[in-house]
Amino acid sequence: MQKEILLKPRVQILITLIFLVLTPSMNYFLMTHNPSQNRLFMGDPDYLDNGNILVCGGDLFDTFRVLERINEDQQYIPKEERTNFVMEITRDGERVWAARGLDFPHEAIKLPNGDILVADTLNDRVVRYNYPNHFIVWKWRVDDINWEDVNPEWDQDHYYNNNNGSFDWSHLNDIDIHHYEEGWDGLLISIRNFDLIVELNYTAAQEHFPRASDIVWWYGDYQNHTMLNHQHNPDYLSNGNIIVADSENHRIIEINKTTKEIVWSYNGTSNGNTQSDQECLKWCRDVNEVPESIEGDFLISDIDRIFMIDKQTKQVVWEFEDEILQAYTTEIDEERGNLLVDCSFLGKIIEVDIESKEIIWQFGKSLLKQMLFFDCSMFMAFFGFRYAIIQLKFSKVKKTEMKHPNRSRYFQYLCGGMIVFLALLMIFHLEILRWVLYRLVSTHDIG
Prior knowledge:
The protein contains 5 helices and 26 strands. It is an alpha+beta fold. It has a domain at 9-28 and 370-443. The strands form 7 sheets. It has a 4-stranded antiparallel sheet. The chain has a 4-stranded antiparallel sheet with strand order 5-6-7-8, with no helix packed on it. Helix 1 packs antiparallel against helix 4 and helix 4 (367-395) runs antiparallel to helix 5 (404-443). The longest helix has 40 residues, at 404-443.
């Protein structure tokens, strides 16, 4: 009678349980105990005049644990020691300056006098650091403003005037500065959870405690999504208008600063025709005016790609997708013809040559890739161990008593299962993670 080589049920159950327990446990270990430099999220990279890079960042695991700091009354519990920072790095990856005491910073700008201006998002404020020291020398808090003095319709019962310590009340996520010929500086501030952009007379605001009278322009209204819906990265344009990524409305809009009218918009269409789903905007969070020396008018950062479009035809004239996972912002270096791109939750910043589309520099390591490689290794070890036991038992059985097709069939199952599992891992880590994180982040107001 021919014998069929099979593992005992208890052995199969034991091996399977080891795999099912060890894999997620090691994923958690990689997330929590990996060296901090290997599990960073990074965003908003900016070129500095000295050749270094200014970047916002923090511990990826700590960022996702931010929801644990909400008590039963939905109030936010600040943490004394935070892992979030703004740092200056060299091309060799050396950190030469860092500012801490921040909570999920989204934007940092180096001012002409050398100081660093930061959008300190979960602290609902803008702060200025005295560079190269680490002292905060100026701050502007959202809840210091009586918003009824800005717009009488925003009375004391309005959301803007009711910060009761709730988590992520304002989500102040961007700043941009502009010098006017009249001699004063305007500071454009994006307050995402207000669905509001304001322009501050930054020159005047530095002289006294925050006042409503320092707000010289605003656009948007709370939950009036015909205007804005959880916007990101508004910028001044060379023509005097404002361009903004109206993220949850899945569009880019240009606002006439004088009339507050939308004079141009883009949502993934060209000449009135809807493009493919791949080309439609998913969760755009940055748009930049492209210098004249580079083809295209606007550079857009979407969740899975960055691309340039012609303003008139709305046609895509340049595109880059490699290594992009939740791209947040992109910075253009006109002199070198390069782009700085943050792949925020991928844990990396990359520099791309526009002409060749090659990655010529990067900073950071991808925790998600480490987890992907580990999971693949665990899968291969799991099936390899099972196959090794089969082989061991096979060697102890006379070949005449062995059903040879069993080993061949098992090997086929092994290969087929490995292909399916690897495909599922790729989907989980690159697609499901991309979209689930997007929904989690946007739903819980983290991104």
